[in-house]
Every structure is written in C-alpha cells, then in structure tokens.
Amino acid sequence: MPAYSTNMRLKFPILALVLELITIILYALFVSYDDGKSSGHHGKDNSSAEHSENPVALYPMFQDVHVMIFIGFGFLMTFLKRYGFSSVGVNLLLAAFGLQWGLLLQNVWHLEDGKIKVSIEKMINADFSTATVLISFGAVLGKTSPVQLLIMTLLEITTFCMNEHVAVTMLGASDIGASMTIHAFGAYFGLAVARVLYRPGLQNGHENNGSVYHSDLFAMIGTVYLWMFWPSFNSAIADPGTPQLTAIINTYFSLAACALAAYATSSLVEKKGKLDMVHIQNATLAGGVAVGTCADMSIGPFGAMTIGVTAGIISTLGFKFLSPILESSLGIQDTCGVHNLHGMPGILGGLAGILAALLGKKEEVYPGMQAAALASSIGFALVGGAITGLIMRLQIWGQPSDQNCFDDSIYWEVPEEDEEAAENLTHADHSKNKAEA
Amino acid sequence: MPAYSTNMRLKFPILALVLELITIILYALFVSYDDGKSSGHHGKDNSSAEHSENPVALYPMFQDVHVMIFIGFGFLMTFLKRYGFSSVGVNLLLAAFGLQWGLLLQNVWHLEDGKIKVSIEKMINADFSTATVLISFGAVLGKTSPVQLLIMTLLEITTFCMNEHVAVTMLGASDIGASMTIHAFGAYFGLAVARVLYRPGLQNGHENNGSVYHSDLFAMIGTVYLWMFWPSFNSAIADPGTPQLTAIINTYFSLAACALAAYATSSLVEKKGKLDMVHIQNATLAGGVAVGTCADMSIGPFGAMTIGVTAGIISTLGFKFLSPILESSLGIQDTCGVHNLHGMPGILGGLAGILAALLGKKEEVYPGMQAAALASSIGFALVGGAITGLIMRLQIWGQPSDQNCFDDSIYWEVPEEDEEAAENLTHADHSKNKAEA
Amino acid sequence: MPAYSTNMRLKFPILALVLELITIILYALFVSYDDGKSSGHHGKDNSSAEHSENPVALYPMFQDVHVMIFIGFGFLMTFLKRYGFSSVGVNLLLAAFGLQWGLLLQNVWHLEDGKIKVSIEKMINADFSTATVLISFGAVLGKTSPVQLLIMTLLEITTFCMNEHVAVTMLGASDIGASMTIHAFGAYFGLAVARVLYRPGLQNGHENNGSVYHSDLFAMIGTVYLWMFWPSFNSAIADPGTPQLTAIINTYFSLAACALAAYATSSLVEKKGKLDMVHIQNATLAGGVAVGTCADMSIGPFGAMTIGVTAGIISTLGFKFLSPILESSLGIQDTCGVHNLHGMPGILGGLAGILAALLGKKEEVYPGMQAAALASSIGFALVGGAITGLIMRLQIWGQPSDQNCFDDSIYWEVPEEDEEAAENLTHADHSKNKAEA
Lengths: 437, 437, 437
Fold this sequence. Notes:
Three copies of one chain form a homotrimer.
Chain A: H1 2-30, E1 31-33, H2 49-53, H3 59-76, H4 84-107, E2 116-118, H5 120-140, H6 146-170, H7 179-196, H8 213-235, H9 242-269, H10 277-283, H11 286-290, H12 300-330, H13 338-358, H14 367-392, H15 416-425, H16 427-436
C-alpha cells in the first residue's frame, strides 16, 4: 500500500492539474462563444427557424443528455457494494475532464476564424464524447486507478474523435444515436483495455465484486434516468422537425418493447424464474443503444419495437451465457457487462442501419458506407483500446493490487463505522486476503 | 414456493412476450408518425403558432411527466424495507407495457387515414394512462405477482380509456390535471382490487410491511420528483398560452401550500408532535392531485392554495384515522394509502371543479357534466376494479402466500449477504412464520 | 425531552398553519396571473420575440432551478448518518414556505394595477429567494428545530429582498448568477446565526455529526444535480439570446474545470492522497458559485475556467484548513461548510465581477457599484443574521439539546429496527451521553 499512497499523493493531483492547465491554455487560444453566424454541422437542413433564432433552443435536450452522463452512467455503476464513491465520483471526474477535451478535439477539424465557437450543439457533442469513456470505465470498473482512468480518458476521446471524423465526416455514415461511434466503440475499446489488463488473480471472483440490497437500488436511479432520457440522446442533434420527432418516437417505443423482452428473458434463464437485477439494470436499456443508428429513419414504430425486443433478448442472454465464456476463454473481465449493454446492441444497431439503408428508410444513406463505419468503429476501438491498455499497464500509474480491487477505501476516506461493519461482515475473507498478502 | 416458481418460470415470461408480440403486430397495422397534418385533440384552441411549427415543443413537458411516472411513482414505493426491487422494477415493467397499450386504446377512437399518428402529445397521454395503473399498484403493493399485475395493467388501461372517452369526449367535462379520470379512478380501481384480494392473514400486519431508514430516503426521491414536476403533469396538455401558464401557477402554489398543511397536520396528530414519514412522503402531494381538475381555470393563486391546504389536511387525517378503519371494517388493505393521496384528493378535485364551473371560472364548463364525469370515473373504477380483482384472484396467476408478501426474494435474486442480515435482524419473526407455514 | 415534545406538539403546527393562512390572505389581496401585458424586470432588452409570445418559454429553466432547490440542496445535506429525514424533509418545508413568502416580498416593490402578476420568471426568482435560506440551513444543520427554521426563513427572505432591492435595483449592480446576493449573502447570514447559536458542548464533536457509506451516496445525488443544473441557475433570468447562452457556457466550463481542481486539491491535502467525500460533494460546485456574477459577461470560456479552478482550490483548502480554525477560534460551527462552498466562492464571484467590470466585459456595469453591492450583501447578511440568531435563541422555540443534535428521532418517527441498530452501533457513545445528561 505505501507504494500506491505515494503515487496517489503526487501523481494523481499533478496529472489532474497539469491536464486542466493545458486545457485552459488551449481554450484561451482557440475557444470562444457562438455568435450565431456559424453554418452549423447540419447546414444542409437548417431551414427551421427555431435553431437560428433562439441559440438555447436545444438546451433542454442538452440537460437530458447531461443527466444521462452524470447521473445515469454514474449511478448505474454504484451497484457494487463498496465502490459507490468511485463509481459516481470518478464518473464525474472523467466526464468533467472529458467534455473539455472532447469539445477541443471534435471541433479542431473545422475552426471558424481560427476559433471553436461554442454552441449548445457543441456542448451536446462534447457530452457525447465522454459517454465512450464512461462505457469503457464500466468494463474496467474496480480494477483501475484514477490516474490510469484519466489517461484512458485522454486517449479514448482522442481515438473517438478520429473515428468519428472517419465514420461520419469522411464516410458520410448516418449514426444519429451513435450505436456505432459511441456504444460499439466505447464497449470494444473498454474490452480491449480490460483484456490487456487481464487479472488471473480475479478469475475466481472477488468478495467485493457484487452488490448489496441498497447498492442495487442506487444503481436503479441510473438505469431509470438512462431509460427515460434515451430519446433525448438519440434525437438531440437530429435535424429539427420531423427527423427529431422520429428519433424521439422510435427510441421511446424501442425502449418500452425492450423492457418487456428483458424482463421476460431474465425470468426465463434464471433458476426458479426469478428476475436478476443485473439484467434489469442493463438489458432494459439495450433498446436505446440498438435503435440509435436508425433512430431518425422512418422505420416505423413497430420497426423500432422489433429492434428493441431483439436487443433486450440478446443483451440478457449475453449477461447469462456469453460473459462467463468471455472471461474464462478470452480473459476479458467485463465488470459491468458493457459488451452486453453497449457492444452487441451497438453492433445490432449498426446492422439495423445497414438494413434500413438497403430499404431506403433515409435519403442519402448507403449500406456500404454504413458497414464501413461499423467496421471503422470496431477497428479503431480494438486497436486504440489495446494500445491504451498497454500504456495503462505501466507500473508507474499505480494500478491497484487484486486484493484492493472493487474497494473505495484505497482512493477515498471511507466513514469509519462502515469499514468496521464491512470488516465484520466479511471477516473470514479479509483474514484470508491478509494471509495471502 | 415450488408452485410459485413453476408459475414464474413459465407464465410470466410467456405472458410478457405474448403481450409484447401482440402489441407489435397491432402497431405494425395501426401506428405511424405524426406528419404535422393532424387536427389535434384541442383543435378549437390551436391558434398558437408554437405547437404546429415545432413538433417537439411539448417534449420538455413530456420528459417531466416521464420522470414522474418512472422515478416518481417508482421510488415513492421503495419505502418498504424489502420490496424496493419490485417497487421500482415492476413499476418500470408495468409502465413500459402500459404506455404501449394506452397509446393504442386512447387513439383507436379517432384514427386518421386508418392510422394512429404518434405525436409528443399522444406520448404524454400514453404516459398518463399508465399513472392509473401505478396508483392501483400502490394499493396492492407487496401482495400481488408480476403476472397478476400485467393482467391488471391490461384491464385497467382498457377501463380507463372507456371512462376517459365517456367523461371527456362524451360528457365534455374539463379535467386537465385528471383529478377525476386518473387519480380518483386509479385509487378506487385499486381499492376495489384490494378488497377482492383481501387477506385475513395480514390483518395483524406483516414484519416486512414497513420501512427502514434508508428505504424512507429512497422513497423521498420519488416524493420530491412528483412534487416538483406536478405542475407539468397538470399543464402538459393544456391549451398553449394562458391556460397552460395558469395550470402551472395554480399547481405550483397548491403544492407549496399543501406542504405546509401536511407538515402541520402530521405533527398535530402524532404522539409527541413528531412528523411521520408516511405523511410527508404522500400528503405533501395531495395538493397536486386536488388542483388537477381546475388547474387551468382562473381560480386565482389563493384559490389554488386553499385547495392545497384542504387536500394536505384531509390526506394526512386519512392516513392517521381513516386507513385503519377501512382495513378493519371494510377489509380494504391499502399498502401505500392511495385512498389518502389519490382517492379523497381526487374527489376533492372533482368537487372543486364543479364549484369552479358554478362560479364560471372557465368557459364552456358545466357543473352537471363535471359531476357526471366524477360519478362516471368512480363508477367505472369500482366496477372495473372489482371485475379485475376477481380475474386476478384466479389461482393460476401465482399470487404470493401471506408469508411471502412484501418480500422481493420470491421474484428477484437478492444479494446473499443481505438475506442473511435481514434474517438475523428479524429472526424471531421468521421463526414464527416458518412455524405457521 | 418532554419540554421539547410539548413545544413540537403545539408550536410547530400552529406556526406553520398561521404562516400559511396569512400568506393565503395576502395572496387573495395582492396576487394574480400574468396577463402578458407586464413590462418585465428586464424591460430594456426584451426585444426577443420568444418571451413575449410564449409565456412558458422559461419553464424548462424554472424546472432545472426547482430541481436544484428541492433535490439538490435537499439531498446534498443527507450526508449526515441520522439526519436524512430532516435534511430532505425540512428542506422541502422551508423552500415550500419560502417561495410563497419570497414571491410576495420580491414583487411588493413594483405592483402592477395593485397586483403582483405571477409569471414563470417570478417563480424562478421566488425559488432563488429560498436558496439563501437553504444555504443558511446548511450552516446550522442538525442544531435547530423546525420552529426556529421557519422563523429564520421568514426573516432571512425578508432581509434578502431588502438587500436585493438595494444591490440590484438601487445600486444597479450586475449579479446574474447571484454570487453576491444569494451565495455570499446566504452563507454569511447562516454563519452569523451559527455564531449566535454557538454550542460549546459540541466543540469536541458529536457522534452523529458524520456520514455513513450510503448517506454519502445519497448526498452525491444532491451534488450531481446541483453540478449539472447550475448553468440553468446562472442563466435562467439572463436576457434572452446571447447573454443567456453566454451564462450557460461560462457556467458549464467553470464547473468542469472546478471539478478537476477540487479532486486534485482534495488528494493533495489528505493523508495518503485519498479523496475526501466532503470535498467532492461541495468543492466541485464552487465554480458554479464563483462564476455567477460574471456568468453573462464575455469573459471567455478560459476566463470562466480560471474562475472555476480558483474556486475549486479555495473551497477545498477552506474545508481542510479554515473551517477548523473558524470553529475553534471564532466559535462558528458550520455543519455543511457553507463558508467554503458559498461564502468564499461568493466573494470570489463578487471580486471577479468587479474585475470584469473594470475590463469592460459587460455594458453599463461599473466596478464601484459592483463593490458596493458586494459590501451591501455581506453587511445585510451579517447584521440580519445576527439579529435573526438572537431571535432564534429564545427559549420558547424549542432548540434541541446538544445531545439531541444531528438526530432525526426527536422530530420524526424513525423506523424502530434502525433505532435499535443505531443504538447498538454506537452503544458506548450513547451511554456516555446519557451519563452526561
């Protein structure tokens, strides 16, 4: 532990402050306010009077996305019994840094008068870029230090911006709800990192890698907020008018149908037909992921519901059957099961987009470009994640020992009584660990 | 327990999937997107440029209502010490199915080109229809299986849509915040179901029919969200402009005044003048229910506050004095006290609407029609609830035994340590139950 | 305890009901609905078509502020292990009364046709006025009775309205996010009250003046909501268009930068480099406070970030080093550390405003007037707080004994099992207290 302490004492605050200072300098050089003269990302369809007249028209949408990022992702990960401080706290840290970094990198490709002019839409996109990091955070949750995670944030957002530039700007793919560029990307990036950081010592589980009753309820706060506001995620930057309405409606129905499918499948596959909180917390959301790419396409409410049901079933089956295999056979330890919530449903979303393009559900969208964007997203994710994992594995970043995984108390002052109570509850295990250490 | 397990293992998932598949087929046949050509529910007063120009103008209101349905109702019911998974989880399940079903049945009366064209306003109404089910869920909370509750959802929303058609479309009553058609209806429907499902074995209480400290705090999340967003509930589908603003203002002040009255009354009636969490969690909201019918009428802020104070007092007194009598004398076991939060305040709202009509507070609103709508709502609720209760009572739906009431662990995988801890805490009671069984 | 009980039994409900009845009578005389003919607070720059056409255009902003007041402040204070009911419950009570009282007093200076015509903007300002009380509540949290707090609400909002009139209307200072008039004012008012109510008996701490693991997670709900919606707080009543957009962007970046600084500083100053939940829950928000005064000025995103970083560092250092000194040397017992979150960052905001005025970052804003407004805010706060503290100290208001501080169970019915459990956990301390009593 002394080794770690020294690291935390100096490396974490220095890294955080240096990153922030560099960011402020870059902002001083390159970032100013939107002056209403911007042509906008979606210039081709900016006929709507709304967006140009009122620069804060998108603000309610932005706040919904903001809630998803900070409450949704943050609390979804509080399901672990002794890792709630890190889940919601480090989530806030990474997203707060990520949005500053993301806004820079996303817009450095098209400066106006040498400046990035911040608008609500750019803020939404900045929030989006952090989602990739929070998804990957789920894969490595409990097994990485804040220093490692800040480095991952820096590298993953950089990779994300490169892939987004390739997939959306260069290939011209349509991915309004970002099934491919955020969800599949974030999942496979995180899984690649997790693979590189594989811990044989955890293959028989860890006493703290599980929930208690109230931690599962905290996690449901995250789940329900993600579920409710996903229509905002998928429609926030859609073209105003009918496309935005379509994205809202498709996501609303996909999620509703997905919820039924997740509950049914969870009961089907569990012994005695009981529901599993892990499935309900996650698989109910897969419909939001999977309908993302074609959210603004006229696939019809029943098309959206079909995608939702499929995603709910696949996701639940993934938690039950695939995750254990990935861990035992491939050495991929995926704490939150992001492969099941973001990985497979993200691919499903990409495939649905290809199909919708084939069926002509949106103009100027081509199946080949959609497929290329899907491949690009997974490719950037796997390569970028592997490289990032190798960098994160360096000794100097203070990765926690197996024994200290899933435990807030190495990074946080934890209330004393609890520590005692927890110690009593798991006395045998603690003794064992101490003996091993 | 084996009997139940078999049921859950097959009946629940099959029922959920069959309902979802039927719904998808009906949506494929009948549901498409709003194309902006709709005349709208409130055709007479659609002069506002807003709604026609921007199809997502109502979206922030929708999201407020959405939060009330999924966070508000869901967490309000987590006050029970061992039933939080079911409260927030089954709330999500029922509302997710209910909104799909409600959107179909509410709009089947007036198809356009043979289709239901989904708009944000229709999504709001669909969410509203699920509120009736969630209110009734509160009456039978802890005593019914998910299978029974899915059946209740199906039947209650169907009954609700019939009554809404009678009360609003045929009688022309004004009920913008739905004191009568949602709150009184949902409460009396639930109470009728609870009466039919009366459990003599629970008349001396149940060890798990109570709260613990943190479960009461989770419930306050629900309370506060309902309290904050109730102005959106009562104004979401009001006519744009002044009526919508009036509905917001009236509900804001009614709730503020109601809160003071609920706190004062709670302290007055409790021994030693202490506050009771049950009152605070519920009676503070009665002002939102009671001001619903006349929310968009010019009753004046002080009129709204008077309604709020009255509702807060009545609701608190109901929890303290009436609920025990209803249980002991009439065999109505109302877990959440929905009679006090939705039943009596709903009737108060209906009566206030009659009075407001008499005083000419809104044009084209007539006291007789208001009274008829109130009677219709209660009549449909009691008859529909009784029939639904009889159907729910059938053995095949796997109703839990008295002993298993108020306990997540028969439907959910519950973290092991907690089960042990809970067992230790209540060891004596558990032993007693086992002896009885 | 009997003495208190008698008080609670009669004084609290009578006071609450009398205050509410007086309020209703005043509303009957003076308050009506906005009829769209109002000239508005910000008449000079009301050229935007938006606000005049749609009277509910500001409603989403209002709801964000509403969430900050009731969820944000309410849950932020639930960090205490046995005081969660009071934190979120009394927060609701005070804010519900405060908004009614604030709306009256804020607008009594400029009646229209003898009436206050309620609009969404006036509702936002009413919510704002309650924020001062909730900040002061944080300073005296756990040490005051509901009766005392209702009196504080009455007097503090009255003082706030006087200072607001002086600082904004008379001096013409610009304080769009209210760093001076709400945050510094609320903090120093509360600190003055806390000083007058100084309890020597608590100078060695109190067993219940601390958190447990899950109470810290509940508090993070408050923190994250405040953090997310602070841009709405600082921009809600800004002039439409560019000033409002500027306020949103500045606050967004100030908070993001502040979060990094708070995390880094917390780790730097804690032994072993661990993070402290108290810092994270509070100091991450200091950037929102400090950027308030100049939120709508063109200070540039990097200017906002610089303010945020400074605030995050100052606030964290205040918790670590200054608060213990204030308590030991000046007898100021500041339960939540409002001096660190609202006091110093509020002053920083005022100073930043003076500097921005010097640099000409907003038209018609003058350094001297800004400085006078800052002095006025602190002056009114200290004098008003001291007088209010003297009134609150009167025996008749039932102030709790030292022993009963930080304990819900003297004002609330607390679930029995918990009381036992808590008693067991802290058995030794309880015995000691009883011996002392």
